[in-house]
Amino acid sequence: MTKRILQFTCTGLLAVSLLAAGDWNDYRGPRRDGTSDEKGLPNSWSPAGDNLAWKLPLGGRSTPVVHGNRLYMLNTAGKGATLTERVAAIDVDTGKLVWEHLMPVYQSDVPPHRAAWASPAVDPETGNIYAIGVGGYMVALNAAGKLVWKKSIVEEYGLVTTHGGRTSSPVIFADLVIVSSVSTGWGEQARPATRFFAMNKKTGEMVWISAPGGRPFDTTYSPAVIAEVNGMKMFIAGNGDGGMHGMKPLTGEPIWSYVMSKRGINTGAVVLGKYAVVSHSEENLDTSEMGQLAAIDISGKGPVKAPRWVLKGFQGGYSSPVMDGDRVYQVDNGANLFAFDFHTGKQLWQHNLGTIQKASPVWADGKLYVGTENGKFLILRPHSDKCEVVDEDQLPGSQEQVIASAAVSRGRVYVVSTDAIYAIGKKRTPGGPDPYKPEPAPPADANAISHVQIVPAEVIVKPGETVQFKARLFDQMGRFYKEDTVEWTVEGARGTVANGTFKADSAPAASAGVVKGKWKELTGQARVRVIPPLPWSEDFESIAPGQAPRTWTNVTNKYVVREVEGKKVLVKLADNAFTKRARVFMGPTTWSNYTVEAEVMATEKRRQMGDAGVVAQRYQLALFGNHQRLELQAWQPETERTALTDFKWTKDTWYRLKLEVQNMPDGKVRARGKAWAVGEPEPDKWLLERIDPLGNKEGSPGIYADAPFEVFFDNLKVTPNSTAGTKVAARQ
Amino acid sequence: MKLFQHRALFLTGAAITALTALSFGPHLANVMAGDPGSADWPMWGGTADRNMVSNMKGAVTTWDVSKGKEKNVKWKAALGSQTYGNPVVAGGQVYVGTNNEAMRDPKQPGDKGVLMAFRESDGEFLWQHVTDKLAAGRVNDWPFQGVCSSPLVEGNIVYYVTNRGEVVALDAKGFRDGNNDGTVKDEKFHGEKDADVLWKFDMMEEVGAFPHNMSNSSPVSHGDLLYVMTANGQDESHVHVPSPRAPSIIAINKKTGKLVWEDNSVGEKILHGQWASPAVGKIGDVVQVVSPQGDGWIRGYEAVTGKKLWEFDSNPKDSVWPKTRNETISTPIIVDGVVYQANGQDPEHGEGPGHLYAIDGTKRGDITKTGQIWHYDKIRRSISTGAVYNGLLFYADFSGFLHCLDAKTGKAHWTHDMLAAIWGSPIVVDGKVYLGDEDGDMAVLEAAPAKKLIFEGSLGSSVYSTPVPANGVLFVANRNELYALGEAKKASMFRTIERILALR
């Protein structure tokens, strides 16, 4: 049995490798396993110019990808108030920047020097480029750099702004592009979890959302690998819950899990036959030794009971392993490279590279290519009993580090350091992209249908609007069978559904729920929010105490309605310090030119008073209690784009905030805000105004609180700017 | 901090010092450096000036901790999975901060901060102080990093800072003396193996501290006052300081647990966190507390009154956080009236350039120019503490280099590459420098102007702490084990092995 599986897999790998002659479309390469079949790759070079096709002073922390004669990387462009993430396209023949696409960073806690973490991915079919920023903004671009579609996963799905920037790279599979993050959305997605979001790569339509793991301990950046075991395709990725999980890539259904740590997993797996080798460097579940390297049998379902072998105490937590035949190479956090026997876990040798390791090695042409955080780049030839150093170069910058992994394409090795990109190898590289061969789609077993997928998986609609859902059937192996007719129902969302067409009620009221499709005993569902157009007002009087608005993201368990002195208000709870700071988004991400107002109040204890703010079009106006300031922010940690003024405000007293954002004819965006004590007349002048040269031209309304102790909101209004000039009545 | 994967840091430095010149309480009389082979090591650095030097004789210069081949292992004890607290030794007991992954009490499961007390003679586990994690998670109390503060032991009282930012005083005898001593009477656990809390000062509650990632300061005392840093710092955004009205340093009356003075010269200028530990020593005519703070400045205070005497910027004026501007995590040392300190960054931030200074704290005001005796810029970022011995300054950096300098001039005699990150500090014992690294090795070198490596051996897993000399034995913790390295008597070795087997 084992033998047959191995043969099958090997055949599969061979078939794939034929497609993989030159492009490096994904962070971990053509097979997403950190290897390439190319031969004749460089044995030596120098940063000064030997065997160096070109060097471009564009640094970064993410691995580049190469498609045809284009190299794409995610890094940052600009400085200070104009610093932002960008996708850069570089001509590999000339080493020149061909185009760049700037991606906004907004409403994020990630500091600027941690931006641009994930690698882009290229779709081999269309040549489109997919990138996700640290703040949860995602784009699909065509090969000319034009926007195909975009998605704000932070506003629409409650992505938890990545802790210090850790972001998973997109993965292309069949018609899907799959990204992941810890998120706390609305409804049942309020449960914090590492969620995988699979979108149609051509349209951005959400196809499935899956949370295969439990409570997340961390945001993570595990590179996903797609393997085939016993004929079943598996999407394998580490998770914030300390586990490695296998899912069916077309549906997101969980297959198996191996929970190995009390912290999140940042590494990827390598797969041979029915075994995967996995690794981490944090707490194990059953010993006080940290870290492990383990081989697990992934041919079963549910929790993997016991590993085939495990080495506890091995600390490989950032680098992902690579495989060469039946040898596994992995670099530990202290930059020691190890070789192990895949089948037994026996250590073959160990070789020191430096002191700190973040990058993953790449194996190609019998050599390992790997950089260290100490700024070294090494070419190594691994043997069965030792590691031979073929070439070792210290990059010239005084603080130049290699955090990214290498990319191999058409005879060259590309290395991104924090200072530059180096194209190691021949001066010219021939040819365009590899010919596209679609992912084989073997026929499904019509007698083993086990899953109904309703697409689009999630939508926002206006009252009176219709949306067409489809029901798609999949078999137990996760293979697509066909679209079919199902019995449709709707729950929670106000509207009707017939033949898959959902029509929202025309009444201007917000509601949220699911559209269900029943096929025999199976049911699939899609999530729907009905959001009325502006203007809105919300005084919370119609919401039961203890509840929160159902259509808002990231509100559940963080904010509740409470009756205070006979009036209902929304309270940012302070009972869970873990969610002390919480941004709530309320509507579509494409709105612009509107004004948000709200009344806010904060309590004070032990020298600390909370912060309260409103959000419009990705700008935030907030009163800071401990600082006694009013600040207008676009990206809080990037302080040069913050406008601020001292503002004395008193605990246990209501103030009104007003934030107006307007797109200007010259492409810039104007945000201005004011605050005043409730009961006093609205000041004529704006207290803060900022013209943003980059400009967030759209975005959802929201509120913001950082609440060491409780913070209160009431009388929220969102109005189009044309009617926003009128003064509001003071709080009664 | 890694914060990114932030793995926080917190080690601190070390050192001992000759407190001779200071008139401390009688309990300190037996802890002077240079008391060969008989001294306890009752605080981080051994003495209040933190200079990492001991004249203890008989420290082993070779060892083997591998299973079945143990050599010069007197005993070992199981710790949690991450141990950043440095051992202290006093009154026949060894104290070390760790996490709860070697759970000693099934009634207290899960991630906790744990201070363990062991019997010095044989490593018998005596009692532990177990503290719940802060609910906010990594922003205030990084998971699984345990207790990073090293206690100060005076007589029968153990002072340290918990992972919740509480300064606590514990009864060294625990509940074994049959009494619930002190003003805290509501300890949840009262068994033989539980800690007896005398008083508690909650820095978050009392002075509004918002510790960034971890509270880790190692207390130091002068007279009736106990000094700790608050760890007050930024939030997850790494820009915003949520509690700018909380002080950097506080002085507490060690008998009553009440606040005596505080200073907040930093306000919102905190670059990251404030993880240093203060040192106390006589500088000129004044007993001073020297405190490295969150803006990368080092400040000196009159110890009794808290009056600020001087401040020194440890960064070049053109430096930019976080690439070239550093925070101060190392503990200062005070030797012959001179302050020695390097700057550096959270290990999560990796390597980079550092700066090491000798500072004249007799100057007043902004002494960045006037108080600089010398500046050594060949050091990389450092979180280690220095050791001055025979006119030589030993200082390690996070890139793995040990530097031996002339303490008077700051000129380098030599450097030694450990080939792995260094979190702990070099310590000079009887004329030899001991230094551990992240790859789990510990080196022994001659403390001399000419470099000579005497021995390098493994300690099994990463050494994030500093080896501590006391009463003829070196106590050193790797990630999850505490070793007493010394010439083992056969019988005790046998007991140790039995105990280890029982723990497995």
Which short descriptors sum up this protein?
heterodimer, A: 732 residues, mainly beta, 8-stranded antiparallel sheet, 6-stranded antiparallel sheet, 2 helices, 3% helix, globular, disordered N terminus, disordered C terminus, B: 504 residues, 5-stranded mixed sheet, 34 strands
Commentary on this structure:
The complex is a heterodimer of chains A (732) and B (504). The N and C termini of chain A lie far apart (77 Å). In chain A, 3% of the residues lie in helices and 45% in strands. Chain A has two helices and 60 strands. In chain A, the strands form 14 sheets. In chain A, strands 45, 46, 47, 49, 56, 57, 58 and 60 form an eight-stranded antiparallel beta sheet that branches. In chain A, β46 (559-564) and β47 form a beta hairpin. The model of chain A is unreliable at 1-20 and 723-732 (pLDDT under 50). Chain A is mainly beta. Chain B has helices at 203-207, 490-503, and strands spanning 53-54, 73-78, 88-90, 93-99, 112-119, 125-132, 152-154, 157-161, 166-171, 197-202, 220-222, 225-229, 249-253, 259-263, 279-283, 286-292, 297-302, 308-313, 333-335, 338-342, 356-360, 365-366, 372-376, 387-389, 392-396, 401-406, 412-417, 427-429, 432-436, 441-446, 453-458, 468-470, 473-477, 481-485. In chain B, the strands form eight sheets. A five-stranded mixed beta sheet of chain B has the order 1-28-29-30-31, with no helix packed on it. A five-stranded mixed beta sheet of chain B has the order 15-16-17-18-22, with no helix packed on it. In chain B, β26 (401-406) and β27 (412-417) form a beta hairpin. The two termini of chain B are 33 Å apart. The chains are: A mainly beta (732), B mainly beta (504). Chains A and B meet through loops of A and α1 of B.
